[in-house]
Amino acid sequence: MLRRGRRKTWLLGTFLCLVLVSGVEAGAKSEHSHGGHQQQNASEITGIPIVKFKWHHVEMPYTVALWVLVAGVCKLVIEANHHVTTVIPESALLICFGFILGGIVWGADKVQTFSLTPTVFFFYLLPQIILDAGYFMPNKLFFSNLGGILIHAVIGTCWNAATVGLSLWGCHMGGAMGDIDIGLLQYLLFGSLLAAVDPVAVIAVFEEVHVNEVLFIMVFGESLLNDGVTVVLFNVFDAFVSLGGGAIDAAEIVKGIVSFFVVAFGGALVGVIFGILLSLLTRCTKNIQIIEPGFVFVLGYLSYLTAEMLSLSAILSITFCGVCCQKYINANMDEKSVTTVRYVMKVFANGSETMIFVFLGISAIDKTIWVWNTGFILLTLLFVFVYRFIGVFALTWIQNKFRLVPLDFTDRIIMSYGGLRGAVAYGLAVLLDPNKIKERPLMIGTTLIVVYFTVILQGITMKPLVTWLKVKRAALSEIMLIEKVQNKVFDHMLVAIEDISGQKGHNYMRDKWKNFEGKWLSWILMKPSARKKHDYVFNVFHKLNLKDALDYVAEGECKGSLEFVRNETAYIDFKKKFGDDFSDISMPEIGIDMGDTTIANPYARRDTVPSVSLEMHEQTMNGLRESEDINTHHLLQQHLYKGRKQHRHRYSRSHFDVNQDEDEVQEIFQRTMRNRLESFKSAKMGVAPPKTITKHPKKDTQQKMPNGKSTDKTRSYHSGDEDFEFSEGDSASGYTGSFPRVTYTAGASHLQSNPVRSLFQLVLRTGLHARPGPHGPGADPALAGRGGAGQRHRRPVAESPGRTALDPSNLRRLAPLRISTRSSDSFTLAGVDPAASSRDRDDLPPPPSPPPTYKPN
Amino acid sequence: MTLPGDGEKTAQLPRAPAGDMSGSQRRSTSKTHRVSPGFRCVRPGSSRTRRSMGALQSAPGQSESPGIWRTGLDVISFEQIAVLHKRFKQLSHNEEFLRRDDFSAIPDLACNPIRAQIIEAFFDRRNFSGSAEGTVEEIGFEEFLVVLSHFKPPRHSMTEEQRESVRKDKLRFLFNMHDTDNDGTITLQEYRHVVEELLSRSGALGKETAKSIADAAMLEVASISVGHMEPDEFYEGITFEHFLKLLSGFDIEHKMSIRFQNMDATTLCK
């Protein structure tokens, strides 16, 4: 395993190098031949060239795309070696990969052609990472710790900047650095760019350590919010450096302080405004669902650019845009759009992060930025590290006086140790003006070293440290409904207690805000339809139900107990009749249809339903003469026709063609009923169904194999009497056990139709990721109830000999229906007493069945 | 931490002697009450209050007696008691007892969906320090304080054992809030009732939805606490042991805590 992994790595590495070198060489070549090319073009204008090599034409986007690819492949290679990433964080490995790539480029070009420029970083790589952070921000956690976060972000950052700058200056005065030309202001400028903890690095490292959520939000929130401070400090000191020491008076300093507030709060305000705009916009995108996810990104980016344009804090702006709009856009947009946004957000953020780290590594391989000054570099490292500790400890000490849950010693150590510097610092360092600051290369180099030190060394040691200090980790638990309900109880209880005891704590504030939000903001920013079903507990309930339904389908399919809904035998039968060639034609169509219908269903290939039914039906016509059957047939034909008509596969730019047609559901159901009838008849009368089925076990196996059916399933299928193939599939799955006892009438079939259908709808919905649908949220549990009724019918099938029933504990949320006294009775009796069972069956209420009967008597 | 850790500035809750309340057996089981004889509790509002509080302040070393944890009486600082006392007076309109009406009259409480349960908890004898049952019609300052003390944040210096008992105490309070008929289990009806109140009043959810959520949650509980269940088996309800187990992953000692302020914020409230 190890060896194979290594070989894979090598392969990939080689490929990577090849791609890279070829790209670079091509670039170099094209540059050389650039002049000649044009000449050639001019001279050869007489003929029409068939093929032209136009590298310079595509050079720019091509290089970008290649780099994106390379960065992606780097990540792939790194993640392929799992045993390495458990020890060394991915960010560190990416930087190291960057070193190698940088070496290759350097070797090819003799100059560093590619490095992380501030424009690329701040305009194209950073925004999506921050937007992602804002959009996925756990709001409650964030705002309940906002005080502490702000203290660290504002005071802590200022402290870091001032102390590092002053101490370095002090050491410089003391003569520790030799002969370099840096004044006090420049030291302060340098300190300010190094002061900020970097969000990208922090996310990258902390995501892998899983510390408890409070600790995480403290570090992460600080890293996001301190950007405002950094930018201001940087700008102020930059201006001071330009002005020169003499021109600074009290007025300038006051202006600097004022500008801090303007920049920080202005940035946040711009973000909030854009968040509101975005929420309003998604209110009315119902008709353009296919592009509504785009708005999120475009407006998010615009908020970033707007803040940048107004020289406000862009990071704060885009953070707050994400934080503010997340709730409303998630409620307003279609569920599919929300999923899209989530995924695309992650793709962008992850991609950018990868690129940033790779380029941080590449940028290091550049002779021009390396000016070594041992004293300066080591002292910077030391001060950055030490003052972070001092700052965090002092600030948390003050904070703990006001916190309900104090941060303990280990938390503080991790907070200090998690003060990683990253690409933001590097980007700012590159922004330094070489004309004004003589020692710019030294500063850039030192910044890079600080970045490497924190990301690589601290990143690697973070995990052992967390383990060693026994820091409380994030509890990994699955969501429980009761937990969510209890949380809500807690919220209200605490508010009540604060009200009663006459305190105005933050519970009180939160409650007031919640009321205000619920009353006004939701009303303005949310669609009326979304408003109704926007309830956290209900959403959790809904989600869990969906999950259960999915599990249920998956499990049922594993055990084959859904067979009566999706009958394999029909497919076989079909094949027998028409031979292989026809099936080859129809199969892709089926696959596509069902693939569309059940997006999330991995078993889609087994659904051979639509095109089969017609033939099925034709055959049954021959054998069945009872009037109810003919009735059914008419129904069947009707629906089949419609069903097939709906099944045209179309291409559309603006719609995913999802088949939500009721008729098709109906059709599937009818087919199911047909099958049950078949098996019932065959079992009761001891007559083989009219379908003539030949023995072709081997052919069967072959045919079924590519359909995703497991081999042993097929084998068991043929284990019995081969003459009886068709009905055997059914009887083996327990039909003989239960169904013969059902007194079947046409009426009964209609009675039973709805529960089963609704079960099917449930299944279908699950596959579609559908939201509650036309019934609205209120009706959804009722739907679940009907689904449950369907399960009640299914019970005997599931309980057939040799197959284990679904465990109630597996399907907790849907289960009320199943362990209701009534259904359990009917079930237990069904196994024992045929008469009772059939009576019970006849008694079964027609749908919509009464809501879950889980009566404690 | 807002709490001074030493005994000097802390005051043990004043407790009434057994005979203080006529006809009440609530005092009969004050097993943990082994405090110094000079420790007399006083009806709030009387002129003795002030004096006794002074006495409390000067009684050092009492706050750490182990029984205190069992009763759920954390140590509330003297300032906090003074603040709460003021609030008590305000709520009761300078009477000695609080009635349910006084609670219902709190304006901020009006929109709280589980207001009824919370108020009831203040009049539930199980939440007082004895082991008596039933409810009372009016409570004095002492009971008021005892109930509020369930929401004390745990102290940082606590041992694991103490923490555990604080936890249990808080959970017991929560449990009692659900278990209205005091039979030791939260039955589906009882649970459903709370959830219905909680959801249907606060959100746009209908009663039916709330009910099915309650059912589903109950099933979850059943599957967690009992494990596998036969189809005809029936889950009685949540017992306290199950309740402990259920919320074991919960950071309850912090979640069910509020900071009692030293400052007097009462004047800000209407």
UniProtKB/TrEMBL annotation, chain A:
<feature type="transmembrane region" description="Helical">
    <location>
        <begin position="120"/>
        <end position="137"/>
    </location>
</feature>
<dbReference type="GO" id="GO:0098719">
    <property type="term" value="P:sodium ion import across plasma membrane"/>
</dbReference>
<dbReference type="GO" id="GO:0031901">
    <property type="term" value="C:early endosome membrane"/>
</dbReference>
<dbReference type="InterPro" id="IPR018422">
    <property type="entry name" value="Cation/H_exchanger_CPA1"/>
</dbReference>
<keyword id="KW-0813">Transport</keyword>
<feature type="transmembrane region" description="Helical">
    <location>
        <begin position="90"/>
        <end position="108"/>
    </location>
</feature>
<feature type="transmembrane region" description="Helical">
    <location>
        <begin position="257"/>
        <end position="281"/>
    </location>
</feature>
<keyword id="KW-0732">Signal</keyword>
<feature type="region of interest" description="Disordered">
    <location>
        <begin position="681"/>
        <end position="732"/>
    </location>
</feature>
<feature type="transmembrane region" description="Helical">
    <location>
        <begin position="371"/>
        <end position="397"/>
    </location>
</feature>
<feature type="signal peptide">
    <location>
        <begin position="1"/>
        <end position="26"/>
    </location>
</feature>
<keyword id="KW-0812">Transmembrane</keyword>
<feature type="transmembrane region" description="Helical">
    <location>
        <begin position="441"/>
        <end position="460"/>
    </location>
</feature>
<feature type="compositionally biased region" description="Pro residues">
    <location>
        <begin position="845"/>
        <end position="857"/>
    </location>
</feature>
<feature type="transmembrane region" description="Helical">
    <location>
        <begin position="149"/>
        <end position="169"/>
    </location>
</feature>
<keyword id="KW-0967">Endosome</keyword>
<dbReference type="InterPro" id="IPR006153">
    <property type="entry name" value="Cation/H_exchanger_TM"/>
</dbReference>
<keyword id="KW-0472">Membrane</keyword>
<dbReference type="GO" id="GO:0031526">
    <property type="term" value="C:brush border membrane"/>
</dbReference>
<protein>
    <recommendedName>
        <fullName>Sodium/hydrogen exchanger</fullName>
    </recommendedName>
</protein>
<dbReference type="GO" id="GO:0051453">
    <property type="term" value="P:regulation of intracellular pH"/>
</dbReference>
<feature type="domain" description="Cation/H+ exchanger transmembrane">
    <location>
        <begin position="84"/>
        <end position="468"/>
    </location>
</feature>
From TrEMBL, chain B:
<keyword id="KW-0966">Cell projection</keyword>
<dbReference type="GO" id="GO:0030027">
    <property type="term" value="C:lamellipodium"/>
</dbReference>
<dbReference type="GO" id="GO:0005737">
    <property type="term" value="C:cytoplasm"/>
</dbReference>
<keyword id="KW-0221">Differentiation</keyword>
<feature type="region of interest" description="Disordered">
    <location>
        <begin position="1"/>
        <end position="65"/>
    </location>
</feature>
<dbReference type="GO" id="GO:0032587">
    <property type="term" value="C:ruffle membrane"/>
</dbReference>
<keyword id="KW-0449">Lipoprotein</keyword>
<dbReference type="GO" id="GO:0004860">
    <property type="term" value="F:protein kinase inhibitor activity"/>
</dbReference>
<dbReference type="GO" id="GO:0030154">
    <property type="term" value="P:cell differentiation"/>
</dbReference>
<keyword id="KW-0539">Nucleus</keyword>
<keyword id="KW-0106">Calcium</keyword>
<keyword id="KW-0649">Protein kinase inhibitor</keyword>
<keyword id="KW-0472">Membrane</keyword>
<dbReference type="GO" id="GO:0005634">
    <property type="term" value="C:nucleus"/>
</dbReference>
<protein>
    <recommendedName>
        <fullName>Calcineurin B homologous protein 3</fullName>
    </recommendedName>
</protein>
<comment type="similarity">
    <text>Belongs to the calcineurin regulatory subunit family. CHP subfamily.</text>
</comment>
<keyword id="KW-1003">Cell membrane</keyword>
<keyword id="KW-0963">Cytoplasm</keyword>
<dbReference type="Pfam" id="PF00036">
    <property type="entry name" value="EF-hand_1"/>
</dbReference>
<dbReference type="InterPro" id="IPR052490">
    <property type="entry name" value="CHP3"/>
</dbReference>
<feature type="domain" description="EF-hand">
    <location>
        <begin position="166"/>
        <end position="201"/>
    </location>
</feature>
<dbReference type="GO" id="GO:0005509">
    <property type="term" value="F:calcium ion binding"/>
</dbReference>
